[in-house]
Amino acid sequence: MKYRKLGGSGLLVGEIGMGCEGFAGKTDAEICEFVDLMELEGVNCIDLYSPNPQIRKGLGRALAGRREKFILQSHLCSIWENDQYLRIRDIKKVKAGFEDMLNELNTDYIDIGMIHYCDSLNDLENILSGPVMQYALELKNSCKIKCIGLSSHNPVVAKKAVESGLISVLMFSINPLYDLQPPDEDVEQLWNPEKYSGRLFNMDKDRQELYEMCEKLGVGITVMKAFGGGDLLNCALSPAKVSLTPVQCIHYALTRPAVSCVMSGARSIEELKESIRYETAADDEKDYASTLASFPSISWEGHCMYCGHCAPCPRGIDVASVSKFLNLVRAQGEVPETVREHYGALEHRAGECISCGACESRCPFKVEIRKNMQEAKNVFGS
What we know:
This protein is α/β, with parallel strands linked by helices. It contains 15 helices and 14 strands. The protein has helices spanning 28-41, 53-63, 91-105, 121-129, 131-141, 155-163, 205-217, 246-254, 269-276, 283-286, 289-293, 319-332, 337-344, 358-362, 369-380, and strands at residues 3-5, 12-14, 16-19, 45-48, 71-76, 78-81, 84-87, 110-115, 145-152, 169-173, 200-201, 220-224, 259-264, 298-299. It is globular, with a radius of gyration of 21 Å. The two termini are 34 Å apart.
């Protein structure tokens, strides 16, 4: 398992994480089997949005004696009432729900206290200026949570949360089709067939800005819905009418700026193993670019997807990384010091480009890479 820094949180997470919705209805022994495999393969980040006591207690028992080996991303504002899940902001219920969480998980701390499911600006404003954030800060100050996060499907809301400086981790829904869609406060619109009925061009501007902002400000991203609830894996269900593999979906998410960990919503051991297989997959298995380029009625022409199809460069330049750093500068209108440092750490930089055009001949998205290399040379000075 490869590990990545989760932004500036101080946490180190495996590229593959585990979302626990698939634990519903599982016995303690079955949940323990999942955790055994996770420990064996180095899957150390666990997302637990469900307040279902059966899931929490089963996971707590499975983690007994090895809690310190795992990073728990567990959700505030998610409670179990009348045998069903509820998203709430009532601070009394939020506090009671957190204490229930600790008791049921048999732990005295949560690594990432994730404020659950915020997709509207009004909701975000109430969270940031009200008792929910105040309580989250109190939990952090008392070491009951190590850092504060927020989950969202709306890039405009997520940008505001990141800009507040109050969160260290963002949980966000990322896959190639969601990235085409404009912001909406209704998550169901992301999969509305009408949204895919016409021609679609390139990544939504707000989503691109969000990923680049997180990279600049040191907010780590954990990814949900990388497979679109499984629909992207089935050409009959995917709005693109072309299927992707789990490995391709994971690689797409992990090549977005600031992304550290992709949650597998595995409902079986075999599905979890399929996600973990990403770590040993060959480069051609990870390649999503050719498949994206084949999507009917969808075009990413001229937009660098950081897919690496441009490699190898005869001068050894990591073209995808140079392009990523250049886009960060374009988005910010300046050269952030961290970006300058990352660029300077590259073994070969844009100034070494000989304009041979080999990269452009391989790019499925017709990016003008030679122009980008010249611009990067001018921006970074080498």
